[in-house]
Amino acid sequence: MAAVDSLWEILTVATLVALAGLALIVGLVRGRGGKGGTKTIERPPTTAPTTVEDERADREGVQTPPGDDVDNVGGGVDVLEPEAPTPTLERPESARGRLARLRARLSRSNNAIGNVLLALLSSGGLDEQSWEDVEDTLLQADLGVEATDELVGKLRTRVKVDGATDVETVKGWLREELLALVDPSMDRRVAASRVGERPSVILVVGVNGTGKTTTVGKLARVLVAENKDVVLGAADTFRAAAADQLQTWGERVGVPTVRSEREGADPASVAFDAVKSAAEYEADVVIIDTAGRLHNKAGLMDELSKVKRVIEKQSPIDEVLLVLDATTGQNGMRQAEVFGQAVEVTGIVLSKLDGTAKGGIVVNVQRRLGVPVKLVGLGEGPDDLAPFDPEAFVDAIIG
């Protein structure tokens, strides 16, 4: 009987050892499943927004850090990824879909100009007072003195030679001459595609209050609608709300944002790291938002020039877009000239080209800077930014 008990004990121990060995083998097999399984990538932690003053008082105290050496560039910057795509991720409206809607809105705000001009030109028997009224209407539309003189001169010639006064003929003349002033031959494409092995770099500049950060967010939506891989750079480091706002725009359409983790960080450093991150992500384009600058503050404009130089140590800048508030009229012209001297502007974005805005600013700013208006904003909606179409613009003005 003792022998049977011993045998039973031996069998029990052997069974337990076998089960333990089997469990160990199963564990090892499961632990080696990396090559065939799903690789989990942890996203960088999101830095909680810091609270700073909305903007330094008149930005007078902002000092441009000495030098442009990039040895110290790159510290303290987070790449804030958007959450993984979910059913709530927004799908921006395509550019084509925007044009008809924005054209109708532009027509409502600028049609009065065309109506006045057509009434004057088709009234017959135009005297000097009538031509002065035509000039005044064009000047009030922010067309500018030079362009107004040119347009009135050509219309005078047509009326003198042809003598027609019916509305349709006059409307055709006005359309032809206005379209020539807007210049449809200008290249209005935004450089937003990869250049060789690197992403395109877009720098967005402008004064305070023009809607610059909002424009950057809306531009990202335009490009996402065109299936572009976009990275945003929040180089407006002097206003905490700007980085938060830009990050929110990006998250809505699945676009990552590069921003500083420190209050008042060097804007050039953030811009540099945004371009670097975009290259690592193999993005199509990186859009850099900069702090709003007063165009009459030389130190701030020098700082903006530094941002541009530091970026160019890593990559060429393919596009410098100047955001202008279309309601500022002639003051916007001065802004355009100063920014053009500081950063070689390549294109204009006219924000707020609705309501009280006058369409003639398109012609005026193009003549002053020699660069095209590429995008226009006509409302508060997220998709109220669209590529500028010269023919649709002129047709909207004259009705």
Helices, strands, pairings?
Layout: H1 2-31, E1 77-80, H2 95-121, H3 128-140, H4 145-162, H5 167-182, E2 200-205, H6 212-225, E3 230-235, H7 240-253, E4 257-260, H8 267-281, E5 285-290, H9 298-312, E6 319-325, H10 330-343, E7 347-351, H11 361-369, E8 373-377, E9 385-387, H12 390-398
Parallel strand pairs: 2-5, 2-6, 3-4, 3-5, 6-7, 7-8
Antiparallel strand pairs: 1-4, 8-9
Label this structure with key terms.
single chain, about 400 residues, alpha/beta, Rossmann fold, 12 helices, 9 strands, about 10% strand, elongated, disordered N terminus
Brief write-up:
This protein has twelve helices and nine strands. The chain has 399 residues and is α/β, with parallel strands linked by helices.
CATH topology of the domain at 67-94 and 186-398: Rossmann fold
Q: Estimate percent helicity.
A: 40-55%
What is the CATH architecture term of the domain at 67-94 and 186-398?
Answer: 3-Layer(aba) Sandwich
> Approximately how much beta-strand content do the residues carry?
5-15%
What value does the Rg take, in angstroms?
30 Å
How would you describe the oligomerization state of the chains in this entry? single chain
| Mean pLDDT over all positions | 76
Catalytic activity: GTP + H2O = GDP + phosphate + H(+)
InterPro entries: AAA+_ATPase, P-loop_NTPase, Signal_recog_particl_SRP54_hlx, SR_rcpt_FtsY, SRP/SRP_N, SRP54_GTPase_dom, SRP54_N_sf
Membrane topology: Peripheral membrane protein
Keywords: Cell membrane, Cytoplasm, GTP-binding, Hydrolase, Membrane, Nucleotide-binding, Receptor, Transmembrane, Transmembrane helix
